[in-house]
Amino acid sequence: MALVEVNGVQLLVEGAGTGDPVVLVHGSWDTREVWALVEPELTSAYRVVSYDRRGHGASGDSAQPGVRRDDEDDLAALIESRGLAPTHVVGNSFGASVTLGLAARRPDLFRSICVHEPPLFSVVPPVAQKFRADMAPVAELIEQGDHSGGAKLFVDTVIGPGIWDELSTDEQGALITNAATFPGELRDPAFDAIDLESLAKLPNRVLLTRGDQSPPYFAPVVAELARLPPVEVTLIPGAGHEPHLTHSTEFVALVQDFVSRAG
Questions:
Q1: pLDDT along the chain (263 residues), means of 10
Q2: How many folded domains does the chain comprise?
């Protein structure tokens, strides 16, 4: 592992394996450790790079709350500074939004894109309104200092009722530790926005995956993004919002197949 300075913050970065590069971008509330079940299989065939996004895990953060564009710029700087371009990128949830947001601006950095359930709710306005309404109490709890209560409410709302109680103490602790970044993400006007016109013109192939057990926020977004020419969609039966944790074997197989086809 190494601390790599990009855009005025230090990011914890880990790389392993050899071959074509694959960059993993985690979602909100998480760290790079969320990829622990899939990295060993991927590193057998690829050079895998994962990192803690700014404000998460062991990475630093800016003095002022950032916006998604900052995460996109961090990803771009990481890809360029490590000599990875053009690279395959795999992103989950908000990490998927970061990935697609950067791809719309800098397609030259990408070789292929594999993303799971990006919360780009602006493409379906009624969903955007509901999500922000549902998340307002989560942000309020966190801003009041109740990070544990906010994390529990988030998990049980977005992942599924009762899921919080099924998590290990370590998993709960990680979510609580990273909770402080979430209200700032929600305050970003572009939190759930995307340039559909630019995405439609991407020269890169995009694999968009969805779980059939995921909360109802995500299916309409996936359906809307599926209209774009570069996008192909795959449903992961039995999976929810984090298939790399619950269905790691199936998820790795999808990524490996897609990356091999992308060339």
A1: 90 96 95 95 96 94 85 97 96 98 97 98 96 95 96 88 89 91 91 96 95 94 96 96 94 96 83
A2: 1
User: Within a domain: residue 139?
Assistant: no
Whether the CB-CB separation of 62 and 21 falls below 8 Å is answered with: no
Please state, in angstroms and rounded to a whole number, the distance separating the CA atoms of residues 76 and 249.
Answer: 29
Q: Which domain holds residue 53?
A: 2-121+193-262
Calpha distance 43→27 (Å, rounded): 21
Task: Report if residue 255 sits inside a domain.
Answer: yes
In a domain, 211, yes or no: yes
Question: Measured on CA atoms in the order 155, 121, 6, 19, is the torsion positive or negative?
Answer: positive
Model pTM score? 0.95
- 117's tokens: 């359930």
Is residue 81 a part of any domain in this protein? yes
Backbone φ, ψ for residue 195 (5° rounding): -85, 90
Q: How far apart are CA 159 and CA 171, in angstroms?
A: 14
Q: Are strands 47-51 and 87-92 parallel, antiparallel or unpaired?
A: unpaired
Report the C-alpha gap between 205 and 164 in whole angstroms. 35
